[in-house]
Amino acid sequence: MVAIFCPSPMWDVDDFNQCVKERYINFWLPILSVIVSVVCLILTSTVRVPEFLRRRWFKKGYRELPTDVSPIDDSDDEDLEPIYRLRTTDAGAEYDEIDDSTTDGRDVEEEALDIAPRTRVASNTPSNGNTDRSPTLILNATPGRRLRSVIEQVVAIMLTVVHVVTLFGIILVQYPPYHSERVSLVHFSTASSILSAYILALSTMRLSPSVRYNSPFLRIHVALFYTFVWLVSIVNLRSAIVHSSRQFVTFLCAFDFLSFTVLVVISLMSPIQDRPAYIETADGLKPNPVPYVSIWDTITFSWADKLLKLGYSRPLTMDDVWDLKDDCRSALLMPGYRLAKNSGTMLYGLLKFFRFRLIYGFCFSVMYAIFTFTPTILVRQILRHLEDPSREPAHMAWLYVFLLLVFAFVNATFSAQALWTFRQVCVRTRAIIVAELYSKALKRKVAVNVPDGAESANAKAKLKAKEDQKGPDDKKKEKIEDETIDLGRVINLMAVDAFSIAEVLARLNPLIKGTMMIFISMILLYQTLGPSAIAGSLGMLTLLPINYKFSRTFGKIQKELLSITDRRIQKTNEILQSIKIIKFFAWEDRFVDQLQEVRNEEIRTLRKRFVILAFAAMVWFGFPTIITFITFGFYTMIAKKELTASVAFSALSLFNLMRTPMDRLAEMITNVIEARTSVDRVQKFLDEEETQKYTQLSKTRRSHGDPLIGFQGASFAWGAGRTNFDFKLQDIDVAFEPGKLSVIVGPTGSGKSSMLMALLGEMNLLKGKVFLPGSSLLEPPAQSRTLGLVESVAYCAQQPWLLNGTIRENILFGNKYNEARYKQVVQLCALLRDFQILEAGDQTPVGEKGISLSGGQKQRISLARALYSNARHLILDDCLSAVDSHTALYLYENCITGPLMKDRTCILVSHNVSLTLTLAHHVIVLENGRIVAQGVPADVVASGILGTDELLINSIQNSREVSRVPSVTNVTDKDAIQVMAPTNAEQQNSKEAGQQPKKKTNEELQQVGMVKLNVYVSYIKSMGSMPFWTLVIVALVFHQAGAIAQNWWVRVWSAAISSMESLVSNKDIVHTSVGVLSTVSTNFTSSASGLFEYAPEAVVRNVIVPLIPVDTRPTSYVNVVDYDDGYLSVQGSVNGPGYYLQIYGLIAIVYIFLSFFREALFYFGSLSASNGLFDKLLNAVMRAKPRFFDSTPVGRIINRFSKDIESIDREVAVDALSFIHSILSVGVIIGVISVIVPGFLLIGVVISIIFFLINMFYLQSSRELKRMQSVTRSPIYQHFGETLVGISTIRAYGYEQRFIAESMHKVDTNSRPYWLMWALNRWMCYRTDLSGGLVSFFAGVFVMMLQNKIDSGLAGLILTYAISFTENMFWVVLLYATNEMNMNSVERIDEFLAVEQEAPDVIPDHRPPPNWPSRGAISVTDLSLRYAPELPLVIKGISFDVEPCSKIGIVGRTGAGKSTIASAFFRFLEADTGKIVIDGIDISSIGLRDLRQSLAIIPQDPTLFTGTVRSNLDPFNNYSDHDIFAVLRHVHLINEIPGEEPEASGSSANSDGLTEAEREARDMNIFYRLESPVTEGGGNLSQGQRQLMCLARSLLKSPKIILLDEATASIDYNTDAQIQETIRTEFANTTILTIAHRLRSIIDYDKILVLDSGFIKEYEHPHILLQQQDSIFRSMCASSGELEALEDLAKQAYEKGK
């Protein structure tokens, strides 16, 4: 039996002792390795491996091919790599069912918005759900792989045979003769035979067809096992060579080494999975190669080589970017995360879900930290050898030099794997957080953002008044619970906070590594310096509280900064969403000032942040110097020890190694604090109150007699419903008849839209029940066998919500395309004519929020979407308000009551009572949230509650005479033909000119190649002028000089000690420091007299003289004349350690000051650049032409103002300064080493070329990937913003999962270049680390070769700099790439600076008179308009005149060009030909501000801003409260002006003349309080109230010319009539141009302008036009059903005008 223990010490000078070699290395290590391997294989085959390891090792993105694999189709694989082949298979059969048991205990909302699909669908399955045989790639077994397997088997057999034969030979021959030696060889051969036999078994097992043992884990296990025994063989071979052994023993060791080398190479170069397998693909993307690469490729990231070569040959595109790995896809990450999270917080769920990956990365980080110190230890050993060559043989020093290269490889491997593991966690975390935010957004309450009616705001205003009387504690306790995060902040959560949280996980490696490095450094310092290290370590530890203080302060500033940035993004988003109204009113300067106020606050906070960073940098650069001062002072002054080169430079190296983790530890603490702030912000959003829709509707239990659709004793509130001030629907009892039309009517703000929202589950249910079919997503809706309809809901919102896609995509809305049904829907929704006029037809992109379409077109597309769906129940909210009267009639008869509505329920809100009640089955009348009447239309009308309008009464009476069954309007009717299709003339003209251009949303441009020089120049100029950059350069140069001076002075100090030691031992002077660059020595020699004449004595003696070759030194400095206290004294002076400490301390003080000055100077220059670029970007966007906003999604613009500006604010300067510092450090390192060792210059050039090539290949690809990542980020923001706006519609249709899937697809698309960009980063870092190892290695080689020519101090200086070269060069390459990527943000902003600008605001030489226009006369002459020079005309040579104070009505079918003419008055479009003259001034000759401020417009889409009633009506505070109240009364938002004397009332006992009830009603009206809040977009007001607010805003200006563009479309008819009366009376001296679909609104106007296809068809008084039987205007009046009434009104107005 072989003994186990050996005596100490185990190491004997240059090798292990004989006992260790015989017992441990030659016997027990092989035996134990076999035992451990067997145990691991048994455990992996019998014990359940953690899911993380199974996914990583066993599944790796494959499925093994079955034995009955179908034939391979080679017909379509010409473009594939040879490793791939196409095979046709059933994609739907690729995956197993997900265990349904995992969803136990989940609530209804979680289940309803389950991120994971029930059955995992193959990623390459077409989106339409067709899973019929889709292509799947197959990984083939190649001949090369088979050859490797054969070689592995042969080598294993040879090993076994050789060692078994050797064993029997020793036993039989009894050789060698000495018993002890023979026994040792028997033990060695026995262990080797067992090992060889086991290797043979492993190789056979791996090649066997057994699935149980043939797995990726086995391949990894075998590779690790081979590597271990290979390392053991190296130790044996070295021992055999160094200590001459018997020849056949040396042969065995060499044979083992060569055999194991072959096995290691084969195992590392073979793919982890040798057998053919399915390779998953998605959307035809190239499969990710990582799952099937070899272990060597995994270690070295060589799998990226092909892509890098491709990227170097040409710019990469998204088609070149590989698909994500299976375990990086959002849809497959979320189920596991949700299970891990359960009911915990997001942070808990992330840490639990990634626990195995974090442990995996932790292990690599710890190993990296440990091996980081090997260069320092090896350098110490080399320096000790140079100081005393007799300590150990020279070959040991050469071994240390060689190990510098070996451990560079080891360090690079552990570093790369640690960083890559955490970076992959980062990619996955970002996908999870974005998915969580999106999922939460789909569950947000709509109430907080879009309440119907003003009562919600009333409640807030009333509560605010009450809170004013309370203390701060009461205010905090009673804070309104409805407060929530607005749209801008939600986008910021996704853009900034999600990134911050994910990034801190990616940077866990410095935290783990840094902690370990600090601990190990202290141990090694103690070994080097003894007790003196305690002083230095304690000094280092004092850095922690300082850094913690910095971090705490930084965290507070960061939190403040994030809050300010939120407000800036929210304000920017609001401005961009409302840019048209801002331009209409020339409010750009006002809103720019508002945004600049927030920006200035942000800049002030950034300035504080940079001051903290500058102080932190000062501590980081200065503290190690101070610690070195303290430690060396303690070591020399107190411990009375000599500071030798090996001690000094080893300690310096350790201090430098500690400095980085100390700084990174502080940085990590700062990052963690930032991330914690972001986690809290995200968690706050995730904890917001959610909609009750799913619980409210799914938990309603039906009993006999309950309606299918409706309410039973239900009350709802938008707020919490705790007070009387929350708007409520009260005591609602309605049963909507299935398959019938029900109409909801009532005045503006009565709660009509709220009733629909309550039915959809969007309001808070206070009591009662609500019923709606298909409201549960947990069960598929029932389907009608005869009609093909399902029991679900389709919803058409009052404000049409459209996706930024094509018209067809919006109509289909994710449903399958059925050509016949689609064409019928298009015809019935009167869209056919629009498609024929639009250039791209139904493929026309609608733009963001449908910006490229008219209001009527958007409304009809939204209606078509509902009609096309297979939902049986349609909910339509005032869908006829934006269309003209004859189109409304057509839609009502053919769409709402047409053939596709047969047996479908329709619940319609409308103000067009006379039209919609004709065929209605049931009508509900609302007022102030209560039902005041309901029933059959005839009965409700007869009750008089709807008024006594003759048209209404006649329409109801006429409706009794027709069948209640919906019928199809005869498509041969004249009006129907005109609605559905263009006339012959229009068809001819449509080829020449369409009414709307093909406003295609421009694809975001992506630059290619290097960032242009002018981008750098523009940023440099933005930072400062020439004096600024002169200061920066001086600071940078002197800072580097300070760093060199410190190390050089330590060298001088240690050289003095070495010189004295030589003096004492040899009684003579050993000349040192002779290996200096020839040019330096020549300069010193030739100018010695002058140099010595002016230089201080101490400097000459201690610094200059050691640099000069001995044979050229002045004689006065050669001889030693005194010696005292261990220090050398020249010319009679005595220099103790205090002298050297004082000089070192002086250098340290200067260096610390320069550190702060350099950082502060650069940071404040960056603030100047940030501010300048932001101002330019803001001005360029605000001055851009309106067409820019039509074609550019807001999300894309927000991307510039959020992520790109954030990058410029916080990253560009910091990274740029770090890059400059690193490149200067690299230059200094190469320069210092080359000066001392000139021969190293050649090696430095070669290594620099290697770095250049690495950097060149890396940058070409990473730059494009960064751009792709930036470009693919915008669609995420855009989709997110669209979803937040359209939540109600998405939830009504029940399409949450589809939108979640789309969001995940966009996130995955963005993650693809992001993941690959960091993979290439690891590729670069790995090779940089290896190349840096070459510097250390060759520096060691030169030191050993010149050991007789340079002293240990210079050797220490060289090796210390060489060790730091790797890290500095790594940062040079990384930061250069990072700066290129950061400058991509500057490049993207520069792109927007070049957008086409509008005309000047003011033309000084052509300013109109101050009171212009004074009369209001308009003359339009030969006006032609086009949207862009390359597009056809949309207005074609029209001419007309408007008399002063005239009222002109502009009518025409949808798309006729009405709004285009209105925009021309404000020069949104510049005239192609002709002109517009107002009061004798051509509007094209004056500035835009002068023009737009002199006119007023009420646009089609009402736009309000976050603020108050006053700030929305009077942004510039130009008007008194009385003026504002007066205009509010004109638009009937209030009944009286506060403060005016009331009329006498004998029944009132109050001074204001109001009863208590009237006063309460007035207090409830927010418009009586001008400081009442208005939420973003006017979300707390109804659509009608928003229109009235916009009308009041324009009327407040009292302009001479007003344009009304469908300004009262969403207002009830009674209010509309009152407003029109107000306009006629109060604005009799104003010229008014009104675009209207309600013909009653303009029937008494002075003239009617009829437009059609860009031409003026008619222009005359309405009465005259009505007398013409073939008049287009007459046909429109006839289509409205009000012809007789309109004729009477026109006649009265005509006669009155005479």
TL;DR?
With 1698 residues, the chain is α/β, with parallel strands linked by helices. The chain has 6 domains: 11-106 and 135-300, no CATH class; 345-446 and 460-689 and 1142-1393, ABC transporter type 1, transmembrane domain (ABC transporter transmembrane region fold, Up-down Bundle), CATH 1.20.1560.10; 695-796 and 805-992, Rossmann fold (3-Layer(aba) Sandwich); 1026-1141, no CATH class; 1401-1495 and 1599-1698, P-loop containing nucleotide triphosphate hydrolases (Rossmann fold), CATH 3.40.50.300; 1507-1542 and 1551-1595, no CATH class. Strands 11-12-13-9-14-15 form a 6-stranded mixed beta sheet, with helices on both faces.
CATH topology description of the largest domain: ABC transporter transmembrane region fold
End-to-end distance = 131 Å
Estimated structural class: alpha/beta
Sheet with the most strands: spatial strand order: 11-12-13-9-14-15
Helix content: 55-70%
What is the residue-mean pLDDT, rounded to a whole number? 75
CATH homologous superfamily placement of the largest domain: ABC transporter type 1, transmembrane domain
Instruction: Give the strand content.
Output: 5-15%
Helix count? 58
